[in-house]
């Protein structure tokens, strides 16, 4: 396995906030990452739907991990900007995210994330879509 793919796996294992949310890495390839969260009460807002912050965090982190697969050794990525469209209320068993790098770059990479909720019947419904711009930096 390439150094970049190993580093991308590490991103899910060591980030304390991501571990606390219960984010799990599902699939990883060059320029692509898929993740999920088994939904619990703690992920809900006041009306019982998945909190927008949970969706945004999963979209952002999964996008960053997809970008990490395409950077060079000694580099890291940090979110510079992101925009999320919350398309419908989310309620179900799992929150899933698929992120694909749209434009890798030496200083900025742009990644698209699609977030789905998996309902009790197994149906996956698109609930949000994000565009994430990541700065590529030298690690120190």
TrEMBL record:
Q: Which residues form the Thioesterase domain?
A: 48-120
Known catalysed reaction(s)? a medium-chain fatty acyl-CoA + H2O = a medium-chain fatty acid + CoA + H(+); a long-chain fatty acyl-CoA + H2O = a long-chain fatty acid + CoA + H(+); a fatty acyl-CoA + H2O = a fatty acid + CoA + H(+)
Tell me which Gene3D superfamilies the record gives. Answer: Hotdog Thioesterase
Question: Is Translocase among the key words of this record?
Answer: no
Sorted alphabetically, which Pfam families does this protein's record hold? Answer: 4HBT
Q: What class of enzyme is it?
A: hydrolase
**Keyword terms of this UniProt record:** Hydrolase
UniProt EC number: 3.1.2.20
Q: Which InterPro entries match?
A: HotDog_dom_sf (IPR029069), PAAI_dom (IPR003736), Thioestr_dom (IPR006683)
Has keyword Hydrolase? yes
Gene Ontology molecular functions: fatty acyl-CoA hydrolase activity
What NCBIfam families does the annotation carry? unchar_dom_1 (TIGR00369)
* Family note: Belongs to the YigI thioesterase family.
Q: What name is this protein filed under?
A: Medium/long-chain acyl-CoA thioesterase YigI
């Amino acid at each position: 396995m390439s150094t970049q793919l190993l580093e991308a796996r590490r991103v899910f294992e060591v980030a304390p906030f991501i571990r606390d949310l219960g984010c799990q890495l599902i699939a990883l390839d060059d320029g692509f990452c898929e993740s999920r969260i088994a939904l619990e009460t703690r992920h809900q807002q006041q009306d019982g739907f998945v909190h927008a912050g949970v969706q945004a965090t999963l979209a952002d982190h999964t996008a960053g991990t997809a970008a990490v697969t395409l950077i060079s050794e000694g580099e890291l990525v940090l979110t510079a900007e992101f925009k999320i469209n919350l398309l419908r209320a989310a309620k179900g068993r799992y929150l899933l995210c698929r992120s694909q790098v749209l434009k890798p770059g030496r200083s900025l990479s742009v990644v698209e994330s699609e977030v789905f909720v998996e309902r009790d019947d197994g149906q996956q419904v698109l609930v949000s879509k994000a565009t994430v711009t990541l700065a590529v930096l030298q690690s120190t």
